[in-house]
Design a protein that fits this description.
This protein is mainly alpha-helical. The chain has one domain (2-339): Amino acid/polyamine transporter I, CATH 1.20.1740. Helices cover 80% and strands 0% of the residues. The chain has 15 helices and no strands. Helix 1 (2-18) crosses helix 8.
């Protein structure tokens, strides 16, 4: 029972870390999969396999080298000097990602709850700071509550989509976009999300340590991510191309479920954004603490302040501009994590 609990904690934290602002709102699914029409179904399958395989590999490797932060993992992948430079660049990327997620949270407050964008940002920042004072324990607890609820409502959205007219559009919808772009999308998407998720999955893998527990948790988490991608793709395909007008596409779809379910689902979208937000801020603050030796609470406050001003640009402009750029950088990281071999015991082998 103790191992089962840890397996589920890993799975839920993995899902909660990946399912951030772009995923939960539907923007990522729209940009990387649904806009490519029927190709999206096949490329989601590719992305799911990558999440299962490489998510497992990353956490196992972190456990083997007992990585304190993602910089330790990057040193194992790239070497000492290059690993530090890569980690430094990833700090900048994480700041951008955190700004995107804050902007997503602000958009939910504005579009769905009639609260001003800036007020939504301030509420989100206050919640992040309070929870992050408790560290990794708060991240595991929040994900254990939020992710099962999100999975349940994903099933509800999927059931509603399947029962509606035009439910098979995800298999037949056409696109004028290049098939090459469609097949590149799952690699860009997985590379970006896995490289960003290492901020929390690396210390989690090191903390759990046990290989069998990590593998089981990563498999369940990867399958869960794939299921949520496919469910979102099916629902979004039914409403193409009109759904592209929404900054929060899944929130627009939830309006058809009735007012009560719409409010709950929108709250869960916010909760999923929030879980990834606190995970990334936690990982970034750990990395900065190793370099600067400043108190983590102070670093958390500085990160929140910087990202508050950056998020004023707006959710959709940040997402559409920054994510593809970060995805290209992350492809190099993806290639090296694929190359890296792991052992059942001892240190990692491969490039060091």
């Amino acid at each position: 029972m103790k191992r089962t609990g840890k397996v589920l904690q890993i799975a839920f934290t993995y899902i909660g870390t990946i399912v951030g602002a772009g995923f939960a709102t539907g923007q990522e699914i729209l940009q990387f999969f649904t806009r490519f029409g029927h190709w999206g179904t096949f490329t989601i399958a590719v992305a799911t396999l990558l999440f299962i395989w490489l998510g497992t590999k990353m956490m196992v490797l972190a456990g083997e080298i007992q990585a304190k932060s993602y910089e330790d993992l990057n040193k194992a992948l790239f070497g000492e000097r290059a690993g530090r430079l890569v980690s430094l660049f990833m700090m900048v990327i994480l700041l951008g990602v955190i700004a995107v997620m804050m902007a997503g949270a602000g958009s939910i407050f504005y579009e769905h709850w009639n609260i001003s964008y800036v007020s939504g940002l301030l509420i989100t920042i206050a919640g992040c700071y309070v929870l992050l004072r408790k560290g990794m324990k708060s991240i595991l607890t929040v994900n254990t509550i939020v992710v099962p609820l999100m999975l349940l409502f994903t099933v509800i959205v999927l059931a509603d989509a399947i029962a509606s007219p035009g439910s098979s559009r995800w298999l037949t919808i056409k696109t004028d976009l290049s098939p090459w772009a469609a097949w590149a999308a799952p690699f860009l998407y997985a590379a970006f999300n896995l490289s960003m998720s290492q901020a929390v999955l690396v210390p989690l893998g090191a903390q759990i340590g046990d290989r069998k527990t990590i593998v089981a948790g990563a498999w369940i988490g990867g399958i869960g991510i794939g299921f949520m991608l496919l469910a979102g793709h099916i629902a979004l395909s039914m409403h193409m191309p009109g759904v592209q007008q929404f900054a929060i596409p899944m929130g627009g779809i939830a309006r058809g479920l009735g007012q009560g379910l719409q409010w709950i689902y929108t709250a869960l979208i916010f909760a999923e954004i929030f879980t990834t937000l606190i995970a990334d801020i936690y990982g970034l603050s750990l990395q900065l603490q190793e370099r600067l030796k400043w108190p983590r609470n102070l670093l958390t406050a500085i990160i929140l302040l910087i990202c508050f001003f950056a998020s004023r640009i707006g959710f959709e402009p940040l997402l559409s501009t920054l994510y593809p750029l970060f995805g290209l950088f992350s492809l190099g990281w993806l290639a090296l994590i694929i190359r890296q071999r792991t052992e059942a015991k001892g240190t990692p082998t491969g490039r060091n």
